[in-house]
């Protein structure tokens, strides 16, 4: 008789791992127990050697689908002498020692639960909160670890007799499923009008009727409130946009199933796998001509954001209203998603006509994730519900725990310790008090849940970012914490390297909107020879003024004037594109140009994002934007993907290679003047920029010998540019790294900041 202790590290809690171990051990007639403690799962088992070996093998290779096992350590103990027939048990979870266990993301309703909901003979028929160990709420209801019911927002719901029997029955699918509940003991739905009065009848059935009549419905989901409206109802969608103050940004559409998604969009195998997977993100899919959705859902877009139901309530709602539904975050534009009932009823009252809500509290607000597929692989656009807070396991240790505060736009933060980087859910743009409050609360929650006390705090170099100010304030209160500034574009490249488990060196191509450079100018079109610890700026786009400073971000026409000056000085040509710009922006244009030439409020920038703005304005796509990146997105969609022509670009040698991006603008203007169709012009611009990327990387390789390229920054959400760059770089022998677990946009910057701090710590011996 032998007794062993097995410690399993990296286990995600709440996905049925302990019941799985119990089942295996019981079948093998082993004695002992399994439990959670702060460090993971602990198994003590006693029996013959062959059975114990089979148990350990099962733990390593047969874990439940949503579980993850990073390390298994086995220790031999002195046997107790008790016969194995005394049984195996799941014992009470301990709370001692440092916490290294992980929390599962919220997971879409599984097939077994859906079958119960659809069965009139089942006691959970039509129940909107059905879940089991394989699905349901996790991260959004967790207050503390270990993940047991008292540490969740389900603690207020006392289990009824049948639910308790399921919870305690080792042979049941709900054995130790912490959110287990039913209509007799669990959360309940209610339907209210905009004055807070109850609407009689079945809440879901009546909600479906309201949606069919054009009602704007606020729906409490798993991580916050959404606003729903019939996607085919043009007037209802317009009314939602006006109330939400979201005039042009595309709205997501929820459909009941994949067949319905295919009626709206083309869906390939890789896209279907993500669309139907346990995370259930919003997928950006190619829209079919004649798709039955209102024009106002995604004006001017060739793609639709489509998602499938991921909670029982969503399944019931799409059954009550089978037509496509707009499902957008429940907030006023630029504010975080509402998630507390009292706040939601107040702040959403001017937006919604009715409220479909429930009484299960949400502890952490979480937006929907957004994904697209590029070259057959996932490309995250927003990593949030369904993915966070699952950590990124990295091949290197963090000698000291790190808090990376991230950037200002598309903010995430990252806590890192041991070999884990906990990148937060999407926080948003830190431009108002409400979002800053969400940021601060999120950091506190992650620190408590994952038991991380940071000794290093990383921040962006821009002194006015609220995340930077938070970092300085935090360190001012704790003299034992080191403050580390990380240049924005180095963080982008470090993020891509860490995302691919690579330490570097690599030639990093960081194309984005703006980031503070080491020389005090605003960078954004960078070629960095970098590893995780440091970088050299080996090349960049030629800087141009940014007329009006931050106002140029909202007004692409301003960047058009900067590039016209760079090309022609004060003698602009009389082409229709230039004259059209003058006519549209007169008399403001002359004043802005004069101020920029005088150096008034016109900081220099090498930004690739602002270059896209300039050509979009000159091509007549748009002069102003209502959301970040809008002009570039629409210019990409304009491009003919079959066009192979390109505009040549000169590259100057010097301390760093300088790409004369104005040559691309000149090519655009010449072709437009010659009557070349705009889709061809847009494609030639993309092709010319991609060719310039390849040429610069080849020149850097000649000097450095580095044959790996990492592409990062928000501009590399542009699928056409990514495809052209990757194809060109691979054709000349480069290995190309792109993002796959965190976004290339600023949502991935916090991971890069943390990776830089860890690498610098390791370089100096911890």
Quick take:
With 766 residues, this protein is α/β, with parallel strands linked by helices.
Task: Explain how this protein is built.
The chain is an alpha/beta fold and 766 residues long. It folds into four domains: 2-103, 2-Layer Sandwich (Alpha-Beta Plaits); 189-358, DHBP synthase (Alpha-Beta Complex); 391-487 and 748-763, Nucleotidyltransferase, domain 5; 511-739, Nucleotidyltransferase, domain 5 (2-Layer Sandwich). The protein is built from 23 helices and 31 strands. Strand 23 (506-516) and strand 24 form a beta hairpin. The longest helix is centred in the C-terminal third of the chain and has 27 residues, at 678-704. The protein is globular, with a radius of gyration of 28 Å. The two termini are 44 Å apart.
What is the CATH H-level superfamily of the largest domain?
Answer: ATPase, nucleotide binding domain
**Major sheet details:** 11 strands, mixed
- Shape verdict: globular
Alpha-beta content class: alpha/beta
| Strand coverage percent | 15-25%
**CATH architectural category of the largest domain:** 2-Layer Sandwich
Mean pLDDT comes to 93
In helices, the fraction of residues equals: 25-40%
Name some characteristics of this structure.
eleven-stranded mixed β-sheet, seven-stranded mixed β-sheet, alpha/beta, DHBP synthase, 23 helices, Alpha-Beta Plaits, 766 residues, Nucleotidyltransferase, domain 5, 31 strands
